[in-house]
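User: Fold this; tokens only.

Assistant: Input:
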Amino acid sequence: MNDSLAGLFFRLPQALAGRKDLNCTAKVVYSCILTTMREKDIAWPGLRRIARECGIDKHTAFRAVERLDAAGLLVITPGNSHQSNRYVLPEGADKCSRSLESVPF
């Protein structure tokens, strides 16, 4: 992906876009978390950051993360009072959905 465009978009896997068991907010939150993942498929954005980047309040972000956890799309390790939750993609997640490198812009 063109580096100048990398910070302008969230990544949304096509398979996730069509899921009827998740609302739009959960899909945007998933995309936000996916965008912050590092090479080992680990992310740790705080709920405040997720809320700010998605244009929602913190409680709505929390509910969306709960939905994603219940749907099996994220493995969540709770943080403590000084650390954010850690989000990991579950084993067997589609590696192609994590990258936009092959998408022409």
